[in-house]
TrEMBL record:
The lineage of its organism: Eukaryota, Fungi, Dikarya, Ascomycota, Pezizomycotina. The keyword Hydrolase does not apply. This is Tyrosinase copper-binding domain-containing protein. It holds the Pfam family Tyrosinase. Residues 1-24 form the signal peptide. Residues 72-268 form the Tyrosinase copper-binding domain. It comes from the Eukaryota. GO terms for molecular function: metal ion binding; oxidoreductase activity. The keyword Mitochondrion does not apply. Keywords: Copper, Metal-binding, Signal. It comes from Sphaerosporella brunnea. PANTHER family: TYROSINASE FAMILY MEMBER (PTHR11474), TYROSINASE-LIKE PROTEIN TYR-1-RELATED (PTHR11474:SF126).
């Protein structure tokens, strides 16, 4: 028999010889089908949450930070905001950058700090009708909120260190203002100013923003009115009034969740057009390693078409 015939015969018999070996191998399942974007729990207004949900939301996230100079995960977000304040405020991508910051903070609470709910928002228009209503807002409750004022300083409604509530006696190591290269331990301060809040957080300002025909018009109202006045919830030069270090007060996240909701409501009035209505959609949103960078385009739609997926209730 020629060598060629022997080779052909071997090739024909080879599968039969290998079959027992193949059958003895463990079964390898097919690669799983990529999962669709799961629907996260919706963001709800603070006063709608149950007492248990409020307690879970207001817990500190004290895991170690990846941001130099900060002492906790909470301060890590503060540090990045301080570093980038000058490039993300009073610019066209202000809303987009803070949208991604907020979803990153929300994800950290869920994935690292065992929080199962969504980031709530504070509809401050419900609390600015009178001084007493502002001072007694559910958000300001020491038992089921973030506490109200700091210790009283003559001539103010508060102004000193916050000494009750879940963030009582909190020590911040970054700030005030743009200080990040040295640690300057200081307390969380708050000085609620009802009269000033009423100027910029009332329903007419929100209505004006929602009536804007273009994003440029919306942005002028939001950044020039709502946002600027809103920071004075903390009074002059208190933690949340510090444009650099405002995330040192946890109310920052409830405030921006509401700002984001207002932007989304404006978008939803003409979604097809307004998801594209922004200058510089390919502008890269820098986060200094806190999360992956993204373009403005990737965070325009909160329904999951890009880097963000969440809703409001």
């Amino acid at each position: 028999m020629s060598l060629l015939l022997l080779l052909l015969l071997l090739l024909l018999l080879l599968p039969l010889l290998l079959l027992p070996l193949l059958l003895s191998l463990p079964f390898l399942p097919a690669a799983p089908t990529p999962k669709t974007h799961a629907s996260p729990p919706p963001r709800r207004e603070w006063r709608i949450l149950s007492t248990t949900e409020k307690a879970a939301t207001s817990q500190r996230c004290t895991l170690a930070s990846r941001v130099p100079g900060s002492r906790s995960r909470f301060e890590g977000f503060l540090g990045v905001h301080i570093l980038l304040t000058d490039s993300v405020h009073f610019v066209g991508h202000f809303h987009a950058w803070h949208r991604l910051l907020l979803i990153t903070y929300e994800a950290a609470l869920r994935n690292e700090c065992n929080h199962t709910g969504a980031q709530p928002y504070w509809a401050w228009t419900l609390d600015v009708h009178s001084n007493s209503r502002t001072m007694s807002s559910p958000v300001s409750s020491a038992e089921t909120g973030f506490d109200g004022n700091g210790a009283w300083i003559p001539g103010r409604t508060g102004g000193g260190c916050v000494t009750t509530g879940p963030f009582a006696n909190l020590t911040l190591h970054l700030g005030p203002t743009e200080v990040v290269d040295t640690s300057e331990p200081h307390c969380l301060t708050r000085d609620i100013a009802p009269e000033v809040m009423r100027l910029g957080l009332n329903g007419s300002f929100v209505a004006t923003a929602l009536d804007a025909e273009t994003f440029a018009e919306f942005d002028v109202v939001a950044q020039g009115g709502i946002t600027y006045e809103a920071v004075t919830v903390g009074g002059e030069l208190e933690t949340i009034a510090d444009i650099y270090a405002s995330p040192g007060d946890p109310l920052f996240y409830l405030h921006h969740a509401n700002m984001n909701w207002i932007w989304r409501r404006w978008q939803s009035q003409d979604l097809g057009k307004r998801l594209e209505d922004i200058a510089g959609p390919d502008t890269v949103l820098d986060f200094r390693g806190l999360t992956g960078n993204a373009t403005v385009r990737e965070v325009m739609d909160i329904r999951g078409g890009g880097r963000v997926c969440y809703g409001y209730a």
